[in-house]
Design brief:
- The chain is of the alpha+beta class.
- The chain contains 3 helices and 4 strands.
- It has 2 domains: 40 residues, no CATH class; 38 residues, no CATH class.
- The chain is 29% helix and 19% strand.
- Strands 1-2 form a two-stranded antiparallel sheet. A two-stranded antiparallel sheet has the order 3-4.
- β3 and β4 form a beta hairpin.
- The longest helix is centred in the C-terminal third of the chain and has 9 residues.
Length: 86
Amino acid sequence: MWGQCHGQSIVTPTDTPFKSVHEIFAFFGTPSVTFKPMVTEMCSGPSLLDTLKLAFDDPNTADIKFVGEKKEIHVHKSILKIRYFL
């Protein structure tokens, strides 16, 4: 390692006991960082769009009802607010 380290300037490359560059960043990084690459997993299941489709016009979950031409449409106030501002 070399460079700025805890307020000191290391001008000559120096051996460390670390086995990977990730461990070095974890030990010397400011702010502290993880020493292992972050791995994420994709969740399986319905997409957000599929979930919204299931909730659309559902009288059990809706909080507003529109009536027009003798037909009821059940909606969610929060979704209407989001769509209004987009």
